[in-house]
């Protein structure tokens, strides 16, 4: 697979130019941010080892064209599955990955009851027959993450691992900053990225989109310094060229690439089946 060879070389060298040959859009933005962070924290990118793949080519006319690939990755344990969207912008252009979320379900169905034909139909962005139209799914899920049980969309979204952990992360940030005397806010919003959706055999849709978490805080007269240390990525303030401890202001943009199953209206809740997270930008002092 050309993508596997290209992204493996890019990951090993932490080279955006190499990644740009096989990625575009959100996928490239996430990897670019990761490469900068890994270089500054002197870390190596993990290896990818694809062992089996499933693919489907939607009935697309004109450009951009796209298809999806579910590739089991055994580069680390436990294995995961990358849920990739390949896009070709115009005739003769290279096929590049625009979204690269992953699922912890590495084999078998993408999710219980979710199956896609080899050549599925596209789903219109405004399809009102679904629990939420594909063009609105990101905003619906983001509102539930931000507002929790106060969201008017709570009944439409399954409170699975992604939603609950994202909600907890927002609350943790709010508590950490305000508890240390900072003022500001944390919220999730729909990212301004393309949405891709195909019909499933159940009549629902498999939808790729992105959600951004925005954290904006400023010191007050009683503020104490804040750090951001993680087990997997190390010092994330240092990773973005900041002092390890910030004392005056912080603006952070985090990206989650997401793929979700959206059932027909009245036949279940929106279920996130895969995601990929990393900060895109962090500024402060």
Short structural description:
This protein is α+β, with helices and mostly antiparallel strands and 285 residues long. 24% of the residues lie in helices and 31% in strands.
Q: Can you put this structure into words, describing what you see?
A:
With 285 residues, the chain is of the alpha+beta class. It has one domain. Helix content is 24%, strand content 31%. A hairpin with a 7-residue loop joins strand 3 and strand 4. Helix 4 crosses helix 5 (161-179). The radius of gyration is 19 Å and the shape is globular. It starts with a helix and ends with a strand.
Give the secondary structure arrangement, pairings included:
Elements: H1 2-13, H2 16-19, H3 25-40, E1 50-56, E2 65-73, E3 80-88, E4 96-99, E5 102-103, H4 134-147, H5 161-179, E6 183-190, E7 196-199, E8 205-218, E9 229-230, E10 234-235, H6 236-239, E11 249-262, E12 271-284
Antiparallel strand pairs: 1-2, 2-3, 3-4, 3-5, 6-8, 7-8, 8-11, 9-10, 11-12
Helix pairs in contact: 4-5
Number of discrete domains: 1
Order of helices and strands: HHHEEEEEHHEEEEEHEE
Distance between the termini: 43 Å
| Main β sheet profile | 5 strands, antiparallel
The number of strands is 12
Question: What's the average pLDDT?
Answer: 96
Structural class: alpha+beta
Helix content: 10-25%
| Secondary structure tally, helices | 6
Shape designation? globular
> What is the C-alpha radius of gyration, as a whole number of Å?
19 Å
Strand content: 25-35%
* Uncertain residue ranges: none
Tags for this model:
5-stranded antiparallel β-sheet, 12 strands, 285 residues
């Amino acid at each position: 697979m050309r993508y596997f060879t290209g992204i493996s070389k890019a990951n090993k060298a932490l080279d955006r130019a190499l990644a740009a040959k096989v990625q575009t859009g959100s996928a490239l933005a996430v990897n670019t941010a990761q490469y900068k962070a890994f270089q500054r924290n002197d870390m190596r990118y993990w290896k990818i080892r694809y062992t089996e793949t499933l693919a489907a080519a939607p009935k697309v006319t004109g450009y951009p064209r796209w298809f999806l690939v579910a590739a089991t990755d055994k580069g680390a344990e436990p294995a995961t599955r990358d849920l990739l969207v390949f896009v070709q912008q115009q005739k003769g252009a290279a096929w590049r990955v625009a979204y690269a979320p992953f699922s912890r379900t590495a084999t078998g169905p993408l999710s219980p009851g979710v199956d896609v034909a080899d050549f599925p139909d596209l789903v219109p962005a405004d399809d009102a027959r679904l629990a939420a139209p594909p063009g609105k799914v990101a905003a619906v899920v983001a509102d539930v993450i931000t507002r929790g049980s106060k969201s008017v969309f709570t009944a439409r979204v399954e409170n699975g691992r992604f939603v609950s952990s994202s909600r907890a992360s927002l609350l943790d940030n709010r508590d950490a900053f305000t508890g240390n005397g900072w003022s500001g806010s944390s919220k999730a919003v729909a990212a301004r990225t393309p949405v891709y959706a195909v019909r499933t055999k159940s009549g629902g849709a498999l939808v790729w989109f992105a959600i951004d978490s925005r954290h904006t805080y400023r010191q007050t007269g009683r503020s104490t310094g804040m750090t951001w240390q993680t087990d997997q990525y190390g010092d994330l303030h240092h990773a973005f060229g900041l002092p390890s401890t910030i004392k005056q202001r912080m603006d952070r943009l985090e990206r989650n690439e997401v793929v979700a199953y959206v059932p027909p209206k009245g036949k279940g809740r929106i279920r996130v089946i895969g995601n990929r997270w990393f900060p895109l930008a962090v500024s402060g002092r």
